[in-house]
Amino acid sequence: MALASGVRFPARALLRPWSLLRDTTLGRSEPAAGGGGGGDGARLFGSQRVLVEPDAASGVAVMKFRNPPVNSLSLELLTELVISLEKVENDKTFRGVILTSACPRVFSAGLDLTELCGRNPAHYTEYWKAVQELWLRTYLSSLVLVAAINGACPAGGCIIALACDCRVLADNPKYHIGLNETLLGITTPFWLKDTYVNTIGHRASEQALQLGSLFPPSEALQVGLVDQVVPEDQVLSTALSEMARWLAVPDHARQLTKTMMRKATADRLLRQRDADIQNFVSFICRDSIQKSLQVYLEKLRQRKG
Ligand SMILES: CCCCCCCCCCC/C=C/C(=O)SCCNC(=O)CCNC(=O)[C@H](O)C(C)(C)COP(=O)(O)OP(=O)(O)OC[C@H]1O[C@@H](n2cnc3c(N)ncnc32)[C@H](O)[C@@H]1OP(=O)(O)O
Protein backbone atom coordinates (compact mmCIF):
# COMPACT_ATOMS: atom_id res chain seq x y z
CA MET A 1 0.00 0.00 0.00
CA ALA A 2 1.71 3.20 -1.15
CA LEU A 3 1.30 5.81 1.54
CA ALA A 4 3.05 9.16 1.73
CA SER A 5 4.86 8.23 4.91
CA GLY A 6 6.06 4.94 3.46
CA VAL A 7 4.56 2.42 5.89
CA ARG A 8 4.23 -1.20 4.82
CA PHE A 9 0.97 -2.86 5.67
CA PRO A 10 0.21 -6.53 6.32
CA ALA A 11 0.70 -8.76 3.31
CA ARG A 12 -3.01 -9.15 2.70
CA ALA A 13 -3.47 -5.39 2.77
CA LEU A 14 -0.61 -4.90 0.36
CA LEU A 15 -2.00 -7.43 -2.04
CA ARG A 16 -5.61 -6.39 -1.75
CA PRO A 17 -5.89 -3.30 0.47
CA TRP A 18 -9.62 -3.12 0.06
CA SER A 19 -9.96 -6.65 1.43
CA LEU A 20 -9.69 -4.90 4.78
CA LEU A 21 -12.60 -2.70 3.84
CA ARG A 22 -15.20 -5.36 3.19
CA ASP A 23 -18.22 -6.02 5.39
CA THR A 24 -19.02 -2.35 5.47
CA THR A 25 -22.15 -1.53 7.35
CA LEU A 26 -22.89 2.10 7.88
CA GLY A 27 -24.10 2.92 11.34
CA ARG A 28 -27.43 4.29 10.15
CA SER A 29 -30.23 3.12 7.95
CA GLU A 30 -30.41 6.13 5.65
CA PRO A 31 -27.51 7.64 3.75
CA ALA A 32 -26.75 11.30 4.38
CA ALA A 33 -28.23 13.85 2.07
CA GLY A 34 -25.90 14.86 -0.73
CA GLY A 35 -23.62 13.10 -3.20
CA GLY A 36 -20.71 11.60 -1.22
CA GLY A 37 -22.88 10.42 1.63
CA GLY A 38 -25.02 7.81 -0.04
CA GLY A 39 -24.97 4.32 -1.48
CA ASP A 40 -21.66 3.12 -2.87
CA GLY A 41 -20.01 6.45 -2.12
CA ALA A 42 -20.56 5.85 1.57
CA ARG A 43 -19.61 2.18 1.36
CA LEU A 44 -16.12 3.05 0.15
CA PHE A 45 -15.10 4.74 3.41
CA GLY A 46 -16.00 2.23 6.07
CA SER A 47 -14.58 -1.15 7.01
CA GLN A 48 -15.11 -3.97 9.43
CA ARG A 49 -13.60 -2.16 12.41
CA VAL A 50 -14.15 1.45 11.35
CA LEU A 51 -17.68 2.69 10.75
CA VAL A 52 -17.89 5.85 8.72
CA GLU A 53 -20.98 8.02 8.59
CA PRO A 54 -20.34 10.61 5.91
CA ASP A 55 -22.45 13.74 5.59
CA ALA A 56 -21.62 15.33 2.29
CA ALA A 57 -23.88 18.31 2.99
CA SER A 58 -21.80 19.45 5.95
CA GLY A 59 -18.52 18.01 4.67
CA VAL A 60 -18.10 16.11 7.94
CA ALA A 61 -17.63 12.36 8.41
CA VAL A 62 -18.15 10.66 11.75
CA MET A 63 -15.65 7.81 12.11
CA LYS A 64 -16.41 5.23 14.79
CA PHE A 65 -13.98 2.65 16.11
CA ARG A 66 -15.63 -0.76 16.34
CA ASN A 67 -13.17 -3.30 17.68
CA PRO A 68 -14.96 -4.82 20.68
CA PRO A 69 -14.71 -5.17 23.55
CA VAL A 70 -12.40 -2.18 24.17
CA ASN A 71 -11.20 -0.87 20.77
CA SER A 72 -7.67 -1.99 21.47
CA LEU A 73 -5.43 -0.87 18.63
CA SER A 74 -4.74 -4.15 16.86
CA LEU A 75 -2.74 -4.13 13.65
CA GLU A 76 -6.00 -4.56 11.77
CA LEU A 77 -7.69 -1.59 13.46
CA LEU A 78 -4.63 0.63 12.95
CA THR A 79 -4.52 -0.34 9.27
CA GLU A 80 -8.21 0.21 8.71
CA LEU A 81 -8.09 3.59 10.43
CA VAL A 82 -5.22 4.74 8.22
CA ILE A 83 -6.98 3.58 5.07
CA SER A 84 -10.32 5.13 6.06
CA LEU A 85 -8.69 8.46 6.94
CA GLU A 86 -6.77 8.45 3.69
CA LYS A 87 -9.93 7.85 1.70
CA VAL A 88 -11.84 10.64 3.43
CA GLU A 89 -8.87 12.96 3.09
CA ASN A 90 -8.63 12.28 -0.63
CA ASP A 91 -12.32 13.07 -1.17
CA LYS A 92 -12.60 16.82 -1.46
CA THR A 93 -16.22 16.65 -0.28
CA PHE A 94 -14.92 16.38 3.26
CA ARG A 95 -13.29 19.01 5.44
CA GLY A 96 -13.63 17.43 8.86
CA VAL A 97 -13.75 14.11 10.70
CA ILE A 98 -15.11 13.33 14.16
CA LEU A 99 -13.40 10.37 15.77
CA THR A 100 -15.46 8.46 18.30
CA SER A 101 -16.22 4.96 19.59
CA ALA A 102 -18.93 2.52 18.63
CA CYS A 103 -18.10 0.42 21.73
CA PRO A 104 -19.88 1.28 24.98
CA ARG A 105 -17.86 2.98 27.74
CA VAL A 106 -14.49 2.83 25.99
CA PHE A 107 -13.07 5.25 23.42
CA SER A 108 -9.96 3.06 23.01
CA ALA A 109 -7.94 0.95 25.48
CA GLY A 110 -4.78 1.90 23.60
CA LEU A 111 -2.27 -0.39 21.98
CA ASP A 112 -3.39 -3.98 21.82
CA LEU A 113 -1.25 -5.66 24.47
CA THR A 114 -1.53 -8.97 22.69
CA GLU A 115 0.37 -7.34 19.80
CA LEU A 116 3.16 -6.44 22.21
CA CYS A 117 3.54 -9.76 24.01
CA GLY A 118 5.16 -12.98 22.86
CA ARG A 119 5.60 -11.98 19.20
CA ASN A 120 8.73 -11.85 17.07
CA PRO A 121 10.81 -8.82 16.02
CA ALA A 122 9.32 -8.82 12.51
CA HIS A 123 5.85 -8.50 14.00
CA TYR A 124 6.90 -5.70 16.35
CA THR A 125 8.48 -3.88 13.43
CA GLU A 126 5.32 -4.09 11.35
CA TYR A 127 3.16 -3.13 14.31
CA TRP A 128 5.24 -0.10 15.32
CA LYS A 129 5.31 1.15 11.72
CA ALA A 130 1.53 1.05 11.74
CA VAL A 131 1.43 2.99 15.04
CA GLN A 132 3.76 5.63 13.61
CA GLU A 133 1.71 5.79 10.42
CA LEU A 134 -1.59 6.37 12.21
CA TRP A 135 -0.06 9.06 14.37
CA LEU A 136 1.54 10.87 11.41
CA ARG A 137 -1.64 10.66 9.37
CA THR A 138 -3.83 12.03 12.15
CA TYR A 139 -1.36 14.57 13.52
CA LEU A 140 -0.62 16.03 10.07
CA SER A 141 -4.10 15.68 8.61
CA SER A 142 -5.27 18.66 6.58
CA LEU A 143 -8.80 17.91 7.79
CA VAL A 144 -10.19 19.25 11.04
CA LEU A 145 -10.18 16.30 13.45
CA VAL A 146 -12.36 16.43 16.55
CA ALA A 147 -12.25 13.65 19.16
CA ALA A 148 -15.66 12.89 20.67
CA ILE A 149 -14.40 10.89 23.63
CA ASN A 150 -17.32 8.80 24.79
CA GLY A 151 -15.45 6.40 27.05
CA ALA A 152 -12.20 5.51 28.78
CA CYS A 153 -9.23 6.86 26.92
CA PRO A 154 -5.91 5.54 28.29
CA ALA A 155 -2.50 5.42 26.57
CA GLY A 156 -2.87 4.84 22.82
CA GLY A 157 -6.48 6.06 23.03
CA CYS A 158 -5.21 9.33 24.47
CA ILE A 159 -2.58 9.47 21.74
CA ILE A 160 -5.26 9.40 19.03
CA ALA A 161 -7.21 12.09 20.87
CA LEU A 162 -4.06 14.22 21.27
CA ALA A 163 -3.47 14.11 17.52
CA CYS A 164 -6.88 15.72 16.94
CA ASP A 165 -7.42 19.48 16.81
CA CYS A 166 -10.00 19.47 19.57
CA ARG A 167 -11.18 17.07 22.28
CA VAL A 168 -14.64 16.76 23.83
CA LEU A 169 -14.91 14.34 26.76
CA ALA A 170 -18.04 12.82 28.30
CA ASP A 171 -18.54 13.80 31.92
CA ASN A 172 -18.36 10.35 33.48
CA PRO A 173 -15.92 9.86 36.38
CA LYS A 174 -15.01 6.43 34.97
CA TYR A 175 -13.80 7.89 31.70
CA HIS A 176 -10.16 8.51 32.52
CA ILE A 177 -7.74 9.90 29.97
CA GLY A 178 -3.95 10.10 29.96
CA LEU A 179 -0.68 8.35 29.23
CA ASN A 180 -0.26 5.59 31.81
CA GLU A 181 2.60 3.73 30.10
CA THR A 182 4.94 3.81 33.09
CA LEU A 183 2.41 1.77 35.07
CA LEU A 184 2.85 -0.98 32.49
CA GLY A 185 6.64 -0.77 32.87
CA ILE A 186 7.13 0.88 29.49
CA THR A 187 8.00 4.41 28.43
CA THR A 188 6.42 6.85 26.04
CA PRO A 189 8.41 7.44 22.86
CA PHE A 190 9.78 10.96 22.37
CA TRP A 191 7.29 11.99 19.69
CA LEU A 192 4.33 11.14 21.90
CA LYS A 193 5.98 12.90 24.83
CA ASP A 194 6.40 15.95 22.58
CA THR A 195 2.71 15.87 21.71
CA TYR A 196 1.83 15.75 25.40
CA VAL A 197 4.13 18.67 26.15
CA ASN A 198 2.61 20.63 23.25
CA THR A 199 -0.83 20.10 24.76
CA ILE A 200 -0.46 20.42 28.55
CA GLY A 201 2.99 21.97 28.95
CA HIS A 202 6.33 20.70 30.21
CA ARG A 203 5.86 20.59 33.97
CA ALA A 204 2.42 18.96 33.83
CA SER A 205 3.75 16.40 31.32
CA GLU A 206 6.80 15.70 33.44
CA GLN A 207 4.58 14.79 36.38
CA ALA A 208 1.84 13.02 34.46
CA LEU A 209 4.21 10.92 32.33
CA GLN A 210 6.33 9.75 35.24
CA LEU A 211 3.33 9.00 37.42
CA GLY A 212 1.36 7.42 34.56
CA SER A 213 -1.54 9.67 35.52
CA LEU A 214 -5.01 8.95 34.20
CA PHE A 215 -7.19 12.03 34.67
CA PRO A 216 -10.92 11.98 35.39
CA PRO A 217 -12.87 14.50 33.26
CA SER A 218 -12.75 17.49 35.63
CA GLU A 219 -8.96 17.18 36.05
CA ALA A 220 -8.44 16.53 32.34
CA LEU A 221 -10.22 19.81 31.64
CA GLN A 222 -8.25 21.64 34.29
CA VAL A 223 -4.87 20.47 32.98
CA GLY A 224 -5.88 21.27 29.37
CA LEU A 225 -5.87 17.70 28.12
CA VAL A 226 -9.41 18.14 26.79
CA ASP A 227 -11.20 21.28 25.60
CA GLN A 228 -14.71 20.54 26.81
CA VAL A 229 -16.38 18.19 29.26
CA VAL A 230 -20.08 17.72 28.61
CA PRO A 231 -22.88 15.33 29.64
CA GLU A 232 -22.48 11.97 27.96
CA ASP A 233 -25.50 12.36 25.68
CA GLN A 234 -24.12 15.66 24.37
CA VAL A 235 -20.65 14.52 23.32
CA LEU A 236 -21.42 14.09 19.64
CA SER A 237 -23.56 17.21 19.30
CA THR A 238 -20.87 19.26 21.06
CA ALA A 239 -18.22 17.77 18.79
CA LEU A 240 -20.34 18.79 15.79
CA SER A 241 -20.68 22.34 17.16
CA GLU A 242 -16.91 22.51 17.71
CA MET A 243 -16.41 21.24 14.18
CA ALA A 244 -18.63 24.01 12.81
CA ARG A 245 -16.52 26.58 14.66
CA TRP A 246 -13.31 25.21 13.13
CA LEU A 247 -14.83 24.88 9.66
CA ALA A 248 -15.87 28.53 9.74
CA VAL A 249 -12.19 29.38 9.19
CA PRO A 250 -10.93 29.32 5.58
CA ASP A 251 -9.24 25.95 5.00
CA HIS A 252 -6.00 27.22 3.48
CA ALA A 253 -5.23 29.59 6.36
CA ARG A 254 -6.18 27.04 9.00
CA GLN A 255 -4.17 24.28 7.31
CA LEU A 256 -1.06 26.42 6.93
CA THR A 257 -1.30 27.41 10.56
CA LYS A 258 -1.74 23.80 11.66
CA THR A 259 1.32 22.79 9.67
CA MET A 260 3.31 25.66 11.14
CA MET A 261 2.36 24.57 14.66
CA ARG A 262 2.94 20.83 14.18
CA LYS A 263 5.71 20.43 11.61
CA ALA A 264 8.67 20.51 13.98
CA THR A 265 7.18 17.79 16.18
CA ALA A 266 6.33 15.54 13.23
CA ASP A 267 9.67 16.17 11.53
CA ARG A 268 11.51 14.91 14.60
CA LEU A 269 9.92 11.52 14.05
CA LEU A 270 10.13 11.62 10.25
CA ARG A 271 13.88 12.21 10.47
CA GLN A 272 14.41 9.09 12.57
CA ARG A 273 11.59 6.71 11.86
CA ASP A 274 13.79 3.69 11.34
CA ALA A 275 15.81 4.36 14.47
CA ASP A 276 12.58 4.78 16.41
CA ILE A 277 11.39 1.40 15.15
CA GLN A 278 14.67 -0.25 16.10
CA ASN A 279 14.51 1.31 19.58
CA PHE A 280 10.98 0.11 20.02
CA VAL A 281 11.74 -3.43 18.86
CA SER A 282 14.82 -3.87 21.00
CA PHE A 283 12.98 -2.36 24.00
CA ILE A 284 9.87 -4.48 23.66
CA CYS A 285 11.89 -7.68 23.09
CA ARG A 286 13.65 -7.38 26.44
CA ASP A 287 12.72 -10.18 28.83
CA SER A 288 12.02 -7.71 31.63
CA ILE A 289 9.62 -5.69 29.45
CA GLN A 290 7.85 -8.78 28.19
CA LYS A 291 7.42 -9.91 31.78
CA SER A 292 5.99 -6.54 32.88
CA LEU A 293 3.51 -6.52 30.02
CA GLN A 294 2.42 -10.08 30.65
CA VAL A 295 1.87 -9.37 34.34
CA TYR A 296 -0.18 -6.27 33.45
CA LEU A 297 -2.28 -8.17 30.90
CA GLU A 298 -2.87 -10.99 33.33
CA LYS A 299 -4.01 -8.49 36.00
CA LEU A 300 -6.43 -6.98 33.48
CA ARG A 301 -7.86 -10.40 32.69
CA GLN A 302 -8.17 -11.38 36.35
CA ARG A 303 -9.76 -8.06 37.28
CA LYS A 304 -12.62 -8.99 35.00
CA GLY A 305 -13.15 -12.42 36.51
C1 LIG B 1 13.66 3.40 24.33
C2 LIG B 1 12.60 3.10 23.35
C3 LIG B 1 11.28 3.53 23.80
C4 LIG B 1 10.20 2.74 23.16
C5 LIG B 1 9.06 2.62 24.09
C6 LIG B 1 8.03 1.76 23.57
C7 LIG B 1 6.81 1.75 24.43
C8 LIG B 1 5.57 1.89 23.64
C9 LIG B 1 4.55 2.77 24.29
C10 LIG B 1 3.59 3.26 23.34
C11 LIG B 1 2.52 4.07 23.92
C12 LIG B 1 1.22 3.40 24.06
C13 LIG B 1 1.05 2.32 24.88
C14 LIG B 1 -0.26 1.65 25.07
O1 LIG B 1 -1.29 2.04 24.58
S1 LIG B 1 -0.23 0.23 26.01
C15 LIG B 1 -1.94 -0.11 26.41
C16 LIG B 1 -2.30 0.57 27.69
N1 LIG B 1 -3.71 0.42 27.97
C17 LIG B 1 -4.18 0.30 29.19
O2 LIG B 1 -3.48 0.30 30.17
C18 LIG B 1 -5.67 0.10 29.29
C19 LIG B 1 -5.99 -1.25 29.82
N2 LIG B 1 -7.44 -1.49 29.84
C20 LIG B 1 -8.24 -0.95 30.78
O3 LIG B 1 -7.85 -0.21 31.65
C21 LIG B 1 -9.69 -1.35 30.71
O4 LIG B 1 -9.79 -2.48 29.88
C22 LIG B 1 -10.61 -0.25 30.16
C23 LIG B 1 -10.73 0.89 31.19
C24 LIG B 1 -10.12 0.30 28.82
C25 LIG B 1 -12.02 -0.85 29.93
O5 LIG B 1 -12.45 -1.47 31.12
P1 LIG B 1 -13.64 -2.55 31.07
O6 LIG B 1 -13.92 -2.93 32.49
O7 LIG B 1 -14.76 -2.05 30.24
O8 LIG B 1 -13.02 -3.79 30.25
P2 LIG B 1 -12.05 -4.92 30.79
O9 LIG B 1 -10.94 -4.34 31.57
O10 LIG B 1 -12.86 -6.00 31.43
O11 LIG B 1 -11.43 -5.47 29.42
C26 LIG B 1 -12.18 -6.31 28.52
C27 LIG B 1 -11.22 -7.24 27.82
O12 LIG B 1 -10.31 -6.46 27.04
C28 LIG B 1 -8.96 -6.78 27.41
N3 LIG B 1 -8.14 -5.57 27.26
C29 LIG B 1 -8.27 -4.39 27.88
N4 LIG B 1 -7.37 -3.52 27.46
C30 LIG B 1 -6.62 -4.16 26.55
C31 LIG B 1 -5.50 -3.77 25.75
N5 LIG B 1 -4.97 -2.54 25.78
N6 LIG B 1 -4.98 -4.69 24.92
C32 LIG B 1 -5.49 -5.93 24.84
N7 LIG B 1 -6.55 -6.36 25.58
C33 LIG B 1 -7.10 -5.47 26.42
C34 LIG B 1 -9.08 -7.24 28.86
O13 LIG B 1 -7.98 -8.02 29.21
C35 LIG B 1 -10.36 -8.04 28.78
O14 LIG B 1 -10.05 -9.27 28.16
P3 LIG B 1 -10.75 -10.64 28.57
O15 LIG B 1 -12.19 -10.47 28.21
O16 LIG B 1 -10.04 -11.68 27.79
O17 LIG B 1 -10.54 -10.79 30.06
UniProtKB/TrEMBL annotation:
Q: Mind naming one GO cellular-component term on file for this protein?
A: mitochondrial matrix
EC class of the enzyme, as a word: isomerase
Pathway given in the UniProt record: Lipid metabolism; fatty acid beta-oxidation
Q: Which GO terms describe its molecular function?
A: delta(3)-delta(2)-enoyl-CoA isomerase activity
Where is the protein localized? Mitochondrion matrix
Which InterPro entries does the entry mention?
Answer: ClpP/crotonase-like_dom_sf, Enoyl-CoA_hydra/iso
Which keywords appear in this protein's UniProt record, sorted alphabetically? Acetylation, Fatty acid metabolism, Isomerase, Lipid metabolism, Mitochondrion, Transit peptide
Biological-process GO terms, alphabetical: fatty acid beta-oxidation
Q: Which reaction does it catalyse?
A: (3Z)-decenoyl-CoA = (2E)-decenoyl-CoA; (3Z)-octenoyl-CoA = (2E)-octenoyl-CoA; (3Z)-dodecenoyl-CoA = (2E)-dodecenoyl-CoA; (3Z)-hexenoyl-CoA = (2E)-hexenoyl-CoA
Identify the EC number(s). Answer: 5.3.3.8
Q: How does it assemble?
A: Homotrimer.
Homology family? Belongs to the enoyl-CoA hydratase/isomerase family.
Task performed by this protein: Key enzyme of fatty acid beta-oxidation. Able to isomerize both 3-cis (3Z) and 3-trans (3E) double bonds into the 2-trans (2E) form in a range of enoyl-CoA species, with a preference for (3Z)-enoyl-CoAs over (3E)-enoyl-CoAs. The catalytic efficiency of this enzyme is not affected by the fatty acyl chain length.
**What is the name listed in the Swiss-Prot or TrEMBL entry for this protein?**
Enoyl-CoA delta isomerase 1, mitochondrial
Q: Which organism is it from?
A: Ovis ammon polii
